[in-house]
């Protein structure tokens, strides 16, 4: 167990990181700059901001996986909690709203790669974010005991694979929206 003082300052640092990242993304929208040129040259600024932060997410969550392997459970818990929360913020601020651009009018719309890949990404992403949120609430003792998942290790493994797969499908989504 880390010393309480160290743990407290790590929690404050994580909270500032989440708030800063989400303030950046919200600021782009509030300033009406969503559609401005992004920094990679292909997509709009808001998509590039989301892309960059999600790349950090897979890197960060993979680092958190290694922390658990090394037995550093406190650091693992705080690290994974941080990424799960940041990701939910990005879904709410950027991605959920974009789903209106891929509404399915007819079943034939699913033959369009852009629409099919985006929905696959959104479906897997929703399950993954819910699994991540459940684990975080259970492990941080917010969920009542009766709702605790006994097979939590398998749920963690599934969520880890889910974040990776969803991110890869997110990169494909970016490709079909802005490059292809
Ligand atoms: C759970 C983990 C998730 C990860 C790691 C993730 C990752 C990504 C990445 C890397 C992109 C490309 C950048 C971009 O175009 O903005 C993207 C785009 C997108 N994602 Fe996700 N995503 C997740 C969950 C979700 C969920 C739950 C939804 C639906 C509610 C969703 C809907 C979208 C849409 C519509 C886009 C393209 C629209 C846009 O550019 O704003 N994603 N995602």
Notes on the protein architecture:
With 180 residues, the protein is an all-alpha fold. It has a single domain (4-179), classed as Four Helix Bundle (Hemerythrin (Met), subunit A). The protein has 5 helices and no strands. It has helices at residues 4-30, 45-69, 73-98, 113-139, 152-179. The longest helix has 28 residues, at 152-179. Residues 47, 50-51, 54, 57, 87, 91, 94-96, 98-99, 118, 121-122, 125-126, 128-129, 163, 166-167, 170-171, 173-174, 177 line the site of protoporphyrin IX containing FE.
**What is the total number of structural domains?**
1
The CATH topology corresponds to Four Helix Bundle (Hemerythrin (Met), subunit A)
H/E element order: HHHHH
- Percent strand equals under 5%
Radius of gyration: 18 Å
Please name the CATH architecture: Up-down Bundle
- Class from secondary-structure proportions: mainly alpha
Provide the helix percentage: over 70%
> How would a textbook summarize the main sheet?
none
What's the level 1 CATH class?
A: Mainly Alpha
Query: What's the number of helices?
Result: 5
The averaged pLDDT comes out at 95
Bound molecules: protoporphyrin IX containing FE
Shape: globular
* Uncertain stretches: none
Give a count of the beta strands, DSSP E runs of length 2 or more.
0
Distance between the termini: 50 Å
Provide a short characterization of the protein structure.
The chain is an all-alpha fold. It contains 5 helices and no strands. The protein has one domain (4-179): Four Helix Bundle (Hemerythrin (Met), subunit A), CATH 1.20.120.
């Amino acid at each position: 167990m880390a010393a309480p003082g160290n743990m407290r300052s790590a929690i404050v640092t994580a909270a500032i990181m989440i708030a800063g990242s989400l303030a950046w993304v919200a600021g782009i929208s509030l300033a009406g700059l969503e559609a401005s040129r992004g920094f990679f040259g292909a997509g709009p600024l808001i998509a590039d901001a989301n892309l960059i932060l999600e790349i950090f997410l897979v890197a960060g969550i993979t680092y958190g996986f290694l922390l658990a392997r090394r037995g550093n459970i406190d650091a693992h818990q705080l690290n994974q909690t941080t990424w799960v929360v940041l990701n939910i913020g990005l879904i709410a601020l950027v991605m959920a709203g974009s789903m209106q651009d891929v509404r399915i009018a007819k079943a034939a719309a699913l033959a369009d790669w852009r629409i099919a890949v985006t929905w696959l990404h959104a479906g897997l992403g929703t399950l993954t974010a819910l699994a991540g949120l459940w684990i975080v609430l259970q492990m941080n003792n917010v969920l009542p005991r009766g709702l605790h998942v006994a097979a939590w290790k398998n749920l963690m493994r599934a969520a880890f694979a889910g974040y990776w797969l969803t991110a890869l499908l997110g990169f494909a989504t970016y490709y079909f929206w802005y490059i292809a």
